[in-house]
Write a structure and sequence with these properties.
Blueprint lengths: L2 E9 L4 H12 L3 E7 L7 E4 L2 E6 L8 H26 L3 E5 L10 H5 L3 E6 L3 H9 L6 H16 L2 E4 L2 H10 L7 E3 L24 E5 L8 H11 L7 E5 L5 H10 L6 E5 L6 H6 L3 E4 L9 H8 L4 E4 L2 H7 L6 E3 L4 H13 L1 H15 L4 H15 L3
């Protein structure tokens, strides 16, 4: 058996894309270890569906840049020690490093000298996210440092996987990476959980339900949805908005809902087990992806497509690049609650337009669903492991 190690500064198995990939590798005949951040309620080690999970209990912060940097460095040091020790004992054929941060890939330096191949899986455009979050330009010193690490990290790796589509692939090519070194693996859901079935008939019953599946942080724009509700309920009195997910922004969002006196229209589900999310999406009439910042292609969109739901998304560059040409989604102006409300009301009143979005979204999803995308993912490993 070829031994593989995946390193990700996220909680496993809650990080569904890492779990999807790790279990696909196990089914393909690889022996897979995962080194990840651990929650205090989790075990330091366990085996789940054939995946060996080694957790490093470290802080996890998102709302303070200095604390985030401290957490990055702490995880870098601890995972470097753990990875190097494991590699000396059992040797990994391939090590996959999942961002963020980009510079985490350098924990493989000794393993690479000993013969391991290295994949850098770039889930996010880290410099772009920094610029969007802090409203700075490309000449900002922080953005320039992150761009340097982005290019250095991608150049160092044997192969690079990106999940944000051709938009980010072209960006890396413009930074000097050869196209043959980059593979696009869209962050589609595991069809073992999100069954690929023909789109169901749209729900004509009231109340009209909207669903958002998101981590509750500012950059994902859930605040825009809450601010849009007072405008939308003037035309859709029975409107219900299901917000699935948790995060440090949740108290602020709940306070906005109270101030706007729309509590009865908003249901905060909190954190939901991944296997239970399809049932919540299935009863919705409409899905939203209201990102305030351009953070790439959200996996929630593919979940909506898989379950036959029309979607409204913010008009961010990466989303426009991916979907503007094929009519799969409706776009609204980012952070504009009035424009979002207008789109919600328009789709409420136009079931034929909803059906059109469902049809085009499902057609697009069928070109990249996990059965297809998984083959491209496993092919990266096969190519790296060729003699």
């Amino acid at each position: 058996m070829k031994r593989i190690c995946i390193v990700r500064r996220k909680y496993y198995p809650w990080q569904k894309n890492v779990r999807r990939d790790a279990e696909a590798l196990v089914k393909a005949g690889y022996q897979v270890d995962v080194i990840c951040t651990g929650h205090k309620a989790q075990k330091p080690f366990e085996v789940l569906n054939g995946v060996h999970i080694y957790r490093t209990i470290t802080p996890y912060n998102r709302d303070n840049s200095l604390l985030v940097l401290y957490d990055y460095i702490t995880f870098f040091i601890l995972s470097f020690l753990k990875l190097t020790w494991f590699d000396l004992r059992k040797h990994y054929a391939v090590i996959e490093i999942n961002t963020m941060p980009d510079f985490l890939v350098f924990i493989t330096v000794i393993c690479r000298l000993l013969g391991s191949k290295v994949i850098l899986y770039m889930f996010e455009d880290m410099p772009g996210l920094f610029m969007s979050s802090y409203k700075v330009g490309p000449q900002n010193i922080g953005a320039r440092i992150l761009r340097f690490f982005e290019k250095w990290s991608a150049t160092y790796a044997d192969h690079v996987i990106v999940s944000d589509g051709l938009h980010y692939k072209h960006h890396l090519e413009n930074r000097g990476l050869p196209p043959s070194k980059i593979t696009v693996i869209l962050n589609v859901p595991d069809t073992g959980v999100f069954q690929s079935i023909p789109p169901p008939a749209l729900n004509a019953k009231h109340p009209f339900r909207i669903v958002i599946v998101s981590t509750l942080v500012k950059r994902y724009g859930v605040q825009t949805v809450i601010k849009a509700i007072p405008f939308a309920v003037k035309h859709i009195p029975d409107l219900i908005v299901d917000i699935v997910g948790d995060g440090e922004y949740r108290p602020y969002l709940q306070e906005i809902a109270r101030e706007l006196q729309i509590d009865k229209h908003v249901h905060f589900w909190g954190w939901v087990e991944h296997d239970n999310i399809p049932g919540i999406i299935a009863r919705a009439d409409l899905g939203l992806a209201p990102m305030s910042d351009d953070v790439g292609l959200p996996n929630k969109l593919f979940e909506y497509f898989a379950l036959g739901k029309p979607a409204i998304v913010s008009a961010q560059p990466s989303l426009i690049s991916a979907f503007d040409h094929n009519g799969t989604v409706a776009f609204f102006e980012p952070d504009n609650e009035v424009d979002l409300a207008d789109h919600i009301v328009y789709l409420f009143r136009n079931p034929e337009k909803r059906k059109s979005l469902v049809s085009h979204g499902y057609e697009f999803y069928n070109t990249c669903r996990w059965e297809i995308t998984q083959k491209e993912y496993l092919k990266v490993y096969e190519e790296l492991l060729k003699p």
